[in-house]
């Protein structure tokens, strides 16, 4: 065993050829990373008692054991390392087996310095991200947060931003599809802040007629316009000492946007028809389901107002990207609505849960809420069954194979094997990346475009799929 001393995030190179070991170590010297080298499986086990590598470069053929056996051993140890397989005999069968055992990537001999450095750099970044994720899980692993329901990593990140931003007076800009909970997010910012005892005032910029919006925002004096029989406080005054939430901010008229900009800059405003300058202490949170920068470029939203408001952005993910949160939310709604309607529901049938997990939920949380309420109102049993699902979920279920696909546990879906069998019967040698691409694309198709779920079935990380798809897109660009 030998080592090349350098910085943190050590690498373990397992290769029995002395000449190749020397070449790989020379390649890796540019990364200024500590490299430990082993020639046998026995020496690897001894090395792991002394250090924990961030990345393992594992040759399949070793003198005392098969590299796949070591890969299985690493999986049993639950090593946090990213493992890169090195082989001179790349095949679809090895690819599938290694992916299932947790391999991060493949290098097929011979490979050059640049290929090695890119692969190792990707693996190191993967480990850094996984470490950060584990920190977030440990410190912020919450399934509920100020009305939010969800324990997925993307929601943990949202909770953490709210935690960090709440104590400040900086403006928060929430974006996300309709039904993702933008007002709930604004309320969470308020409840987590020192202003939580103050008022929370919400103004829907899309629901109020243009002619009344300024009065709604700033109030008016008696006689300011026809029908103004008395003086009226606006949302700005009502929110004094608290939080003013401007929902669908991109719907606001351009003339009022300029007055809002002055109000944000100075904290002062005038009522409609008034001459006296009034000052308030307000924290702003705004939201939109549009792309605000696209609205700026189209001339519908002032650029200076955008940069004044877009201080702390929070992007709420669509429900389909929140892993298993859909079942957490569905069960919460089922319990709530069953109590409200005095019904007996306590659970969802397994095929309904699987259907919910792969359905794309274009209406997000709001659509899920409506679906569960529909089921509870129209039926009364202890378990929600497939025949109770309303449109369009029932049509989605039928289009997916008359419930057979959902009646079979998803782990039993045979994603890659039939393709591998065809390859083994053929004399044609297909490049390994094409085999991987076919396997991953097929898994994504089976999972209705849900990449995290496809990654779970393939027993790899979603980040691996995203990275490989970027590589394939680049290859297609070069070939075209």
In summary, what is this structure?
With 480 residues, the protein is an alpha/beta fold. It has 21 helices and 19 strands. The chain has helices at residues 18-28, 41-48, 67-77, 92-100, 113-140, 153-166, 182-192, 210-218, 235-238, 254-266, 292-297, 303-309, 325-341, 350-358, 364-378, 393-399, 404-407, 417-425, 432-446, 451-458, 462-479; strands at residues 2-4, 7-14, 33-38, 55-59, 82-87, 105-108, 144-145, 148-149, 172-175, 200-204, 219-220, 232-233, 243-247, 268-270, 277-279, 283-288, 312-315, 347-348, 383-384.
Question: What would you say this structure looks like, in words?
Answer:
The N terminus is likely disordered. The chain starts with a strand and ends with a helix. Strand 14 and strand 15 form a beta hairpin. The protein is 49% helix and 15% strand. It has 21 helices and 19 strands. The strands form six sheets. It has a six-stranded mixed beta sheet with strand order 1-3-2-4-5-6, with helices on both faces. It has four domains: 134 residues, Response regulator (Rossmann fold, 3-Layer(aba) Sandwich); 164 residues, P-loop containing nucleotide triphosphate hydrolases (Rossmann fold); 89 residues, Helicase, Ruva Protein, domain 3; 63 residues, Homeodomain-like (Arc Repressor Mutant, subunit A). Helix 6 packs across helix 7. By secondary structure, it is α/β, with parallel strands linked by helices.
């Amino acid at each position: 065993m030998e080592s090349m001393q350098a910085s943190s995030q050590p690498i373990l190179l397992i290769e029995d050829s002395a000449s190749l070991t020397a070449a790989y170590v020379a390649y890796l010297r540019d990364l200024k990373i500590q490299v430990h080298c082993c020639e046998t499986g026995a020496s690897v086990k001894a090395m792991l008692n002394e250090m924990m590598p961030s990345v393992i470069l594992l040759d399949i053929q070793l003198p005392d054991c098969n590299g796949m056996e070591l890969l299985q051993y690493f999986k049993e140890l639950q090593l946090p390392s990213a493992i890169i397989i090195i082989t001179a005999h790349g095949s679809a069968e090895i690819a599938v087996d290694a992916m299932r055992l947790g391999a991060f990537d493949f290098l097929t001999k011979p490979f050059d310095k640049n290929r090695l450095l890119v692969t190792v750099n990707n693996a190191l970044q993967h480990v850094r991200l996984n470490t950060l994720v584990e920190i977030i899980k440990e410190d912020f692993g919450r399934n509920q947060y100020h009305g939010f329901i969800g324990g997925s990593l993307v929601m943990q990140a949202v909770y953490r931003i709210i935690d960090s931003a709440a104590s400040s007076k900086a403006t928060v800009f929430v974006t996300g599809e309709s039904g993702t909970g933008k007002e709930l997010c604004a309320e969470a910012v308020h409840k987590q802040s020192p202003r939580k005892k103050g008022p929370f005032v919400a103004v829907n910029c899309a629901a109020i007629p243009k002619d009344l919006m300024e009065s709604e925002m700033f109030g008016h004096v008696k006689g300011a316009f026809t029908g103004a029989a008395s003086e009226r406080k606006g949302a700005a005054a009502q929110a004094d000492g608290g939080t003013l939430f401007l929902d669908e901010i991109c719907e606001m008229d351009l003339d009022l946007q300029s007055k809002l900009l002055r109000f944000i800059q100075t904290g002062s405003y005038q009522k409609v028809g008034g001459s006296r300058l009034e000052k308030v202490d307000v924290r702003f949170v705004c939201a939109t389901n549009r792309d605000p920068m696209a609205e700026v470029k189209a001339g519908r939203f002032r650029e200076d107002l955008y940069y004044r408001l877009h201080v702390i952005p929070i992007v709420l993910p669509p429900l389909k990207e929140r892993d298993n949160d859909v079942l957490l939310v569905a069960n919460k709604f089922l319990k709530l609505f069953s109590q409200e309607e005095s019904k007996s529901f306590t659970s969802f049938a397994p095929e309904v849960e699987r259907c919910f997990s792969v359905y794309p939920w274009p209406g997000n949380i709001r659509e899920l809420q409506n679906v569960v309420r529909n089921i509870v109102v129209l039926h009364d049993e202890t378990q929600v069954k497939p025949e109770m699902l309303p449109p369009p979920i029932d049509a989605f279920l039928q289009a997916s194979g008359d419930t057979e696909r959902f009646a079979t546990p998803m782990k039993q879906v045979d994603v890659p094997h039939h393709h591998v069998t065809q390859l083994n019967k053929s004399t044609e040698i297909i490049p390994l990346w094409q085999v991987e691409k076919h396997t991953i694309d097929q898994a994504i198709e089976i999972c209705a475009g849900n990449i995290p779920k496809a990654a779970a079935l393939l027993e790899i990380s979603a980040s691996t799929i995203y990275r490989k798809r970027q590589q394939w897109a680049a290859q297609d660009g070069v070939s075209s």
